[in-house]
Design a protein that fits this description.
By secondary structure, the chain is of the alpha+beta class. It is built from 11 helices and 11 strands. Strands 5, 6, 7, 8, 9, 10 and 11 form a 7-stranded mixed beta sheet that branches. Strands 1-4-3-2 form a 4-stranded antiparallel beta sheet. A hairpin with an 8-residue loop joins strand 2 and strand 3. 21% of the residues are buried. About 2% of the residues have low confidence.
Length: 430
């Protein structure tokens, strides 16, 4: 999930950065354009039109023959004003221009149907109407809305293009994200199809090559550990035979060391087997398996008790899973003086809690507890025998069975080992 979130954040940041940069440049360019390009001087044009109107109005007032200057339907002296809706802004502008020039007339500007231009209508003193065209088209009323619409369309188009471009550029990263999410508990990765854009094909080819080399390295390591564990048996057998000719006290020391070497070799071979085991998982009653383990350990004198248990079914390999749980309970009973086991469910998970009353694990060492051959005891001659592979083997088994193993120190003292498995079914108690 963290990888997915980081991927989404990266795409969002790249998209926001590119869109913001382009919009900022466009806004700056638009603002500079408004500064450099002078807007139309509407007031000066209105003053010029008012001067023309005053000249024609004086001419008409001094001529008794008005029909001589009548021309067309929208020019000349008419008995009535021009029809059509009144243009409010041009009307206010013309009246203001006439007032500035000292004229007493009040005019109206209309848009007559069929006229190619606005018409100024002014009532003369004798009741007649002077009609003349307005020489300049008034400014559009929707200039602000047009600018806002232009910016909105530009922003939406830029965002769409940037989203497509960023998705195309980050597709190799998305491929890596999907690849990491597809890696199973065994570390295996199915080959990726090398198709699509050039960058995606290159990324898929690199991931496939990396997966192949990692698999070869892991198989080589597994073979090396298995061969070393197996080959140790022959010299240890010869050493046991030679130990028979030693003094009794010295022979016991040799035998103890050889026993420890034997445990190490045996644990190493078991760890390798768990890593390469590929048998299928089957439904099993986890509660019954845990109960069998605690009963068996109790019969051999270990302090291990099943405190509570609910019936749960999970998918797993019974033999290996039982061996892992037995190792964990033995660790709690030996290192922690006693083991208390509980089986419960939380949501869709089956939970096995193994608690003890021991000293716990130092927090600075908690991250290393699943490392092979790691022991908290600093000395190899620790009073409790072991090769340091018990937790590593248990962790490998649990992960291979689709579960998780987590350790934490309890506030009141002791250690809690928490196993969780997805529920296969929730059986009804008999």
């Amino acid at each position: 999930m963290n990888t997915l979130h980081a991927m989404k954040t990266l795409r969002a940041k790249l998209t926001a950065l590119l869109v913001g940069a382009i919009l900022l440049v466009v806004l700056l360019a638009t603002g500079l354009t408004f500064l450099l390009v002078s807007p139309p001087r509407f007031e000066a044009a209105e003053d010029a039109t008012a001067s023309q109107f005053a000249l024609i109005a004086d001419l008409v007032a001094n001529r008794p023959d008005t029909t001589a200057i009548a021309s067309g339907d929208f020019i000349g002296v008419k008995p009535a004003a021009a029809d059509g809706p009144v243009a409010a802004k041009p009307t206010r502008g013309m009246n203001a221009a006439l007032k500035r020039s000292g004229r007493p007339e009040q005019v109206i500007v209309t848009d007559p149907p069929g006229a190619p231009w606005p018409v100024i209508s002014a009532r003369l003193g004798d009741g007649r109407w002077l009609l003349m065209p307005m020489s300049m088209t008034p400014p559009p009323d929707n200039r602000g809305w047009a600018l806002a619409g232009w910016m909105l369309i530009f922003a939406m188009g830029t965002t769409a293009v940037m989203v497509f471009a960023v998705r195309r550029l980050t597709e190799p990263l998305a491929l890596l994200e999907r690849t990491v999410a597809a890696i199973g508990p065994d570390g295996e990765l199915a080959p990726l199809p090398e198709e699509g854009p050039t960058e995606v094909r290159a990324a898929a080819r690199a991931v496939n090559l990396l997966s192949s080399r990692l698999k070869s390295a892991m198989e080589s390591r597994i073979r090396l550990v298995a061969a070393a564990g197996h080959d140790l048996r022959t010299p240890m057998t010869r050493m046991r035979l030679r130990a028979e000719f030693l003094d009794e006290n010295e022979r016991e020391t040799w035998i103890a060391d050889l026993d420890e070497l034997d445990r190490i070799a045996d644990s190493a071979i078991r760890l390798v087997r768990e890593e390469v085991e590929g048998s299928s998982r089957t439904p099993l009653r986890l509660d019954g398996l845990v109960e069998d383990v605690t009963d068996e350990l109790g019969e051999i004198g270990m302090t291990a008790a099943l405190a509570s248990c609910v019936p749960v079914t999970v998918l797993g390999r019974p033999l290996s899973l039982k061996r892992a749980i037995r190792n964990l309970v033995i660790n709690a009973a030996t290192h922690g003086r006693e083991a208390t086991v509980r089986v419960t469910t939380i949501g869709d998970d089956a939970i096995v809690l193994i608690e003890d009353r021991g000293p716990g694990i130092p927090e600075e060492l908690m991250a290393r507890v699943f490392e092979p051959f790691f022991r908290i005891d600093p000395a190899r001659n620790a009073p409790i025998p072991g090769a340091g592979l018990g937790l590593a083997i248990a962790h490998e088994i649990i992960v291979n069975n689709g579960g998780m193993l987590a350790l934490r120190n309890l506030p009141a003292g002791g250690l809690e080992q928490r196993l969780s498995f997805p529920l296969a079914a929730r059986p009804q108690p008999a």
